Amino acid sequence: MNPAIDPTPFMRVMVASTGRTGLVPATHFSRQFAAADAKFRLVDIVCNPAQLFPTLILNYPDWCEAHRAMLHGAQASLRDTASALRQVLGEADTEVIDLTALHQGAAEALAHAARQWRADLIAVAAHRYEHRRAGRIDSDELVALTHCPVLYLPATSLEAVSPTVRRVLVAIDGSGTALDSLRVALAVAPPDARFKAVYAADDGLAWREWLPSEMVSRHRIEVLQRGEAMLASSRHPAEAALLDFDDDSGDTSSAILDEAQRWRADLIAMGSHGMRGAAQPFPGHVASRTLRDACCPVLVCPRGAASGGRARAESAWPQPEPGNGNVPCYS
């Protein structure tokens, strides 16, 4: 288990989107988890114009002109967004990530930019037509490439009139990563937020063949007790519960999402890996499916996210290779 984090909000928050969609509501939402003097960086990701064929070829005679127009539009929009948010953030940094020049995917380029800027939270605003969006930010890949928490905001959540976080659902399964997610959520959530910790693991299928049911039940109780102890040490109103499945085919991520909807959660917090996925570089299947299907924002904490407090050492970050030069390639 990782040591407890410093009980302070995030200090360096990077808010990113593709196509300049959702930056304003995503910034307002993530602002609740940041310190009063936190620094923000607004990021727009510009994809390779060749991936937009045949849409752009009807309007521009060549890819270079289309590329210049996309970069100009992104820069102008970021300036307008930063100006609109000045009363909330003060002076915010802006950055345009040009995937054409970097020869990288969106998640890899964003993770590299976050490491360079020393971000301790990456907030990603999903595009409404993300499945058809060129240069989309793959949330699974981003979580795998960074060691700071990732706040993913689905398109439906960006339409909310009030972004206030009042109810936080935390999924725990006994793994150190899951308990770290509870520590992080308790440290950064608004003071009046209510917490609910739920035991959520697919142990029914994983352990039934070789562990007695009494041992599995004891494990569940012990995990909840550890979660309850952490909740009791905080000032947040809280409760804990088991998530029951109707049958052996019950899906853990579906149970989490159903409970989030029933409890009217404003945020789901969870670890990137469970008890059985510690050796895998990508998030476990429960986190992946939750990210894919959630209607409310999801805060995912990768392994080691709670180590060292807010001042995470740069050596803890993965080192993605830089692009192969700055010459755009449209093929």
Give the H and E element order: EHEHHEHHEHEEHEHHEHEHE
Which band does the percent of strand residues land in?
15-25%
Cα-atom radius of gyration: 20 Å
CATH-defined fold name of the largest domain: Rossmann fold
Helix fraction bin: 25-40%
Q: Which secondary-structure class do the elements indicate?
A: alpha/beta
In the CATH hierarchy, the architecture of the largest domain is 3-Layer(aba) Sandwich
Tell me the domain tally: 2
State the total count of DSSP E strands. 10
What would the average pLDDT be, to the nearest integer?
Answer: 78
Span between termini: 47 Å
Main-sheet strand order equals 3-2-1-4-5-10-9-6-7-8
Fourth-tier CATH superfamily name of the largest domain: HUPs
Global outline: globular
Any low-confidence stretches, pLDDT <50, length ≥5? Answer: 1-6, 277-282, 308-327
Largest sheet: 10 strands, mixed
